[in-house]
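thread from #wetlab-drylab

HS: before we spend reagent money on co-crystallization trials with adenosine-5'-diphosphate, can we at least see a predicted complex? here's what I'd submit
DV: go for it
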Amino acid sequence: MNKTILCIGAGYVGGPTMAIIADNCPDYKVIVVDKNEARIKAWQSDILPIYEPGLDEVVKRTRGKNLFFSTDIFGGINEADIIFVSVNTPTKTFGAGAGKAADLQYWEKTARDIIEHSSHDKIVVEKSTLPVRTAAAMQRILQSNTKGLNFEVISNPEFMAEGTAVTDLQHPDRVLIGSMDTPTGQAALQRMIDIYTHWVPREKIKTTNIWSSELSKLVSNAMLAQRISSVNSISALCEKTDANILEVSAAMGLDSRIGSKFLKASIGFGGSCFKKDILNLVYLSEFYGLPEVAAYWEQVVLINDYQERRFVAKICNKMFNTIASKKIAVFGFAFKADTGDTRESPAIYVCKMLLEERAKLAIHDPKALENAMLDLADETGDITYCNDPYEAVKGAHCIAVLTDWKDFLKYDFRRIYELMEKPAFIFDGRNLLDHKAMFELGFNVYPLGQPALSHLK
Ligand code: UDX
Ligand code: ADP
């Protein structure tokens, strides 16, 4: 049996997923290809293109043994008979469905590359999140080949989250594999099961029809994001009523039917998946003539935008209704802790709104400063990027905590307070810091969804 696996797309999904497969399946050869030469060079080097706790060790163990990174896409296609596709599927920015539907041009290009460079039958695995029924379109494109080859499309969505990719991949809650109910579809399914049972207990591998698999991925993300928007909407109500969102979340989460995870109020969710996938679901619902369903899910995104705006409005309002020319130390730019990824980070929108108010920004993040510079490259305002937190706070009027990096907890806030303008403010968009301790140091503290701790009368 041909035991070579190819993955097209060496990004946040493809890279870590293939490293874990290679690590657990020494009898397979795993090749990861990408059209981006710089990215492949980075995967081959000591400094990987993405920061992910624990990933360096896995890559070091497997690279050059049974894990290979290459730009030879066509050679890889020819060699492997199982091809995972994890190219990006961003939201369309043009034409029909702009702003909501998925842009499938990279996917289609990949399908055409596969046809052109194949000389034997292949299993093509959808790893990127795709709109429901993409597999049907894929199957049609792939079957249009004139070489008499059979291409079997499998849906195997990835549920790992950034920042915890290695543990999520090593110990997944479930592995979902959708396949066609045909003899070739079932044979392809078995080949996939053979790979995952190298390290995942068989009962955690769920098999479904291909449409359920595609839709489950979209809906899982939409449900998770919906929990955050629900709790964020209540954080606004807490601030008006002196209730405390931490207490409300904890009380709610103790109900075993609700559960305690993903109820942390924040300035909003970010990341490459949530917004894109919900908008995708909205588009799909509209497409199938279900406007009420579309409006229901769209509200999750609207609350997220509202939560970002609300945070900036609070900063302005509490700092005497003007932040023009005031220096704001931004703590955290990544969309969550333990990643350098800033795609759809709420920090991007919050910083842009602060700049519109003519504030000066000093941005500090342990891993995401390079991406922050790219995200804000077109902004004309006064922005500095600081590796050193104490540099960022020098002469600042407030600190805005935008990412839940644990590193911030270790900083010397007495020293920070001394370096800042007075009155000094903290706006904690992640409820990360010890607010009482900060208040006792002299800060005016504005947590999220909790009563403020202010020295000002
Ligand atoms: C998500 C899904 O969790 C994962 O299963 C899917 O495969 C890809 O999308 P990811 O975007 O990497 O993963 O991160 P996640 O941990 O889900 O966080 C998304 C955003 O929600 C972050 O900005 C995070 O800070 C925010 N969040 C999360 C909250 O604001 N509150 C919470 O309680 C949890
Ligand atoms: P994700 O978070 O879904 O992994 P990324 O943007 O990090 O998304 O990764 C997608 C990768 O796919 C990028 O590195 C991009 O260069 C690569 N890619 C996109 N289209 C193609 C293609 N036709 N052939 C090879 N690689 C591609």
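DV: The CA atoms of residues 44 and 69 lie 6 Å apart.
HS: ok that's useful, forwarding to the group
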